[in-house]
Amino acid sequence: MAKIRVAVLFGGKSNEHSISVATASGVLSAIDSSKYEVVPVGITRDGVFVPFKGDPATLSLSNGLKTIEPEGSTIRFAMDGSCELLEKDSSGKERSLGVIDVVMPMLHGPFGEDGTMQGFLELVGVPYVGNGVLGSAAAMDKEFSKALFKAAGIPSPDYAVVSASDMLNNPESALDRIKDLGKLPFFVKPARSGSSVGITKVGSMKDIPAALTEAFKHDDKVIIEVGVVGREIECGVLDSLDGGALRVSVAGEITVRGREFYDFEAKYVDSDAATLICPADISSDQLSQMQQMARKAFKALGCKGLARVDFFLTDKGFMVNEINTMPGFTSISMFPRCWQESGLSYKDLIDELISLALVDSAS
C-alpha cells in the first residue's frame, strides 16, 4: 500500500517563526514513517518556501530557537489543482516532488494561523490539517473571538480595544476607555499574535503608553484585558472521525515562578520559570464543566480539527482566555501532553490529525 504523502510546513513570516520551527521538529521526529512519506517545507521570515533536508532533531528547543534560511532552492505548489509540489534549484531548473495528499501547516501567528495559509491551501486544492479560514481568523483576532464568546454566553475577561489610529487621532479617548475597565492590573496584548509576544502586565496607568508602544510593534490593534486572579488551566479539543461529539482532553495547569506571568521567556527560554502539571488537580465536576465550556467555545468560533482552549479557574468558576487553533507541538507543549494523559500518544495524535483532514476533504 502506498504511503500517504504529507507536506509539513513550518517557520513563516510571523514573530512566532522559531516556535513553529520547534513545533515541526517534534512532529517530524514523531510521525509514523512506515505510514507517511514526509516532505518538510520550511518558510523563511520573508515568506519564501524552501526544502528542508536536515535532521529534524537539530530544530528542537533543546538546541535553541532556530530560523529557516534560504539556501538556493525554492518550493512551490502547482496552482492547477493537481496538488503537485515543485522544487526549483539555484539555476532555475524545476523538478516535480510529486503529488501531496495532505498538508500539515505547523505555523503559528499571522500568515500561518490566522486564515491566510488556510485560504492559500484552499486555492491550491490540497487537504490540510486543522481549522479553516473562518475559525483560524476568528481565533487569532482577540477582539472578534471575545465578541463571539460573549454572544455565546461564555465568560471571558473584560477588555478594551485600541488601534494605532486611535492613539494617533484621539489618544485621550482611547486612554479613557482603558481607565473605564476599572481595577488594575491590565494585560496589554497585540490583538493578533500568540506565544505571549508583545504582552505587558501593567500595574499603573502611567505605564500604559509604554505597554501600548510595545504591543504596537507587533500589531496595529491592541487588546487591554483586565487581569484575572485564578489558576491557568488548558485542555485540548479534537473533532471526531465519525462526525460525533467533540473530544476534550484532561486538564493541564501552568504554574509560574519568579515572573509576572507566563510570558515568552517562561514558555520557551527559561525552563525553570514555569511548571506544566498534567493532569491538573481539579475535581471531576470541574473537569466536566471545563470540557463542556471548551466544546462550546470551539463551536462559537467555528473551529474544526483541533484547538487548545485556555482558561482561568477563578473562585466563581471557569473563564475562557483564548483559543489556539494550532497549538505548540514541542517537547514541552501542553496540547500533546494533555492528549497523552488522555490515552492518545504523540504519534497517534499526529495520525488522528491527518485522518481528520483527509476525512474532511472527502466529505
UniProtKB/TrEMBL annotation:
Cofactor requirement: Mn(2+); Mg(2+)
Keywords, ordered alphabetically: ATP-binding, Cell shape, Cell wall biogenesis/degradation, Ligase, Magnesium, Manganese, Metal-binding, Nucleotide-binding, Peptidoglycan synthesis
Pfam families: Dala_Dala_lig_C, Dala_Dala_lig_N
Gene Ontology biological process terms in this record: cell wall organization; peptidoglycan biosynthetic process; regulation of cell shape
Residue ranges of domain ATP-grasp in the record: 146-355
Gene Ontology CC entries for this record: cytosol
InterPro entries the UniProt entry points to: ATP-grasp, ATP_grasp_subdomain_1, D-Ala_lig_Van_CS, D_ala_D_ala, Dala_Dala_lig_C, Dala_Dala_lig_N, PreATP-grasp_dom_sf
Alphabetized SUPFAM superfamilies for the sequence: Glutathione synthetase ATP-binding domain-like, PreATP-grasp domain
GO molecular function, one term: metal ion binding
Assigned protein family: Belongs to the D-alanine--D-alanine ligase family.
Name the UniProt record assigns to this protein: Unannotated protein
Organism: freshwater metagenome
